[in-house]
Sequence to fold (296 residues):
Amino acid sequence: MQHKGGYTIESIELRALAIREHIITMLEEAGSGHSAGPLGLADIYAALYFHVLKHDPQKPDWSERDRLILSCGHTVPVRYAAMAEAGYFPRKELLTLRKFGTRLQGHPHNLDLPGMETSSGPLGQGLSQAIGFATAALMDGEKWHTYCILSDGEHQEGQIWEALMYAGSRNLHNLTVFIDRNNIQIDGPTESIMPLEPLADKYRAFNWHVIEIDGHNIQQIIDACNEAKAITEHPTCILAHTIPGKGVSYMEYDFRWHGTPPGLQNLPGSPEKDEQVKIALHDLRTLKGKIRGEHE
Ligand SMILES: Cc1ncc(C[n+]2csc(CCOP(=O)(O)OP(=O)(O)O)c2C)c(N)n1
Ligand SMILES: [Mg+2]
Fold:
């Protein structure tokens, strides 16, 4: 199927894989950083940067651009990789991740990097910032839309609930939140540390429109964004079910890869550290062949 800007579902899926490959090579080079969350978010970022967002990599401060607010700052490698793929900066700059003096800090710094709307890292604050953007757009009669990416673990921060209550009460229909529902946080499964369920019902109770999707299905991501823009009475929450570590066999569903880069340490049940990068890239390249096959 042909999409806005000439992109097909297949081409967006291939961008997502390219983004995942960048994540692996960036993290290996940095020798630190987060693997699981970024890999799980690659399809959402590919759909956003290559179809959904109104943006211009040549003019990152274009006043009519949609605003994408990243709240869970530790997942920023996926955003850097998507921005490089989209043409915001050269792909080779990705290898400066977390190096001294880089624009690509381990947590995003908006004064360093054009196109990075906000700084983040302390969890729980991005939704409040996004509400500020969405409110400003309504006050000024601007058409651009505000998107915000939240992790599931950061719903354990009280500020999130204050912000949810406010956005629902003000009918901020120009605000769409993605929740990366990957069921993990640093120390284990969210439901065994501080249960979040029933998460969708909690959003509905706060006057939000909720859409549940498979966060790896590009068509569902795009359809949900279209639905969100058509809703005029509520802000929308896209509850995206994702697989942490998606695409890398030994990382999938395993919370130990939350903040561990490939190639750094041996983890019981995972390949030896010297093999981890090679196997990860092999897994992703195998998927690339599968995608091409599926669309032939
Ligand atoms: C206010 C605050 N408290 C604690 C942390 C440390 N921290 C960083 S990531 C993280 C786990 C949060 O869970 P989630 O974002 O769901 O992790 P992921 O799915 O990426 O593994 C924590 C507690 C932080 N960044 N900010
Ligand atoms: Mg999580």
The chain has nine helices and seven strands.
